[in-house]
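User: Batch of two.

Assistant: Item 1 of 2:
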Amino acid sequence: MLFQYSEKNNTLSVEHAIVRKAGTEMKFSKSGKGIVMLQFNMLQISYGGESNSSLGYIMLEGLEPGRNFTWGFSIQRTLGSNMQLNFIYDGRASKDNPVVHTGNVQVRVFF
């Protein structure tokens, strides 16, 4: 279980963010084969400022004021002695915005 509290202040203006984060992460691994990782987080964000500005985006970590959810899933698979295959999926949901899904695939070769 993860619990995190952070405050962010813009000393040149009035922007102030309070981020409360609670989540969980699970990791399964098998020696020589790979790793599977799952995560889920709930964030409660209080923000005093313009959320549609570049500073607001940074202070809000790309999320929105209020309740937000983030989740992720990744598989890291070892292929032979010098290759690695990674599948990564992340999602996030905010109150007034559609769910955002992001995924990527990586192949790594070690020389």
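Item 2 of 2:
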Amino acid sequence: MVERLNGFIVEWLNGWMVEWFNGWMVERLNGWMVEWLNGWMVEWLNGLIVDWLNGWMVEWWN
């Protein structure tokens, strides 16, 4: 009886730990990916817009 209970508790804890860790890792990774992509997109778009504006201003002023 005790062995079966121990086995059950160990199984349950292992399952729970794996689930929790996987969920946590996915959240962390998703958050990191989103942050990174957002940062990269913003940098890239800003660079693009600034380049375009500078080019347009130079053309217009000349």
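The helical segments are 2-61.
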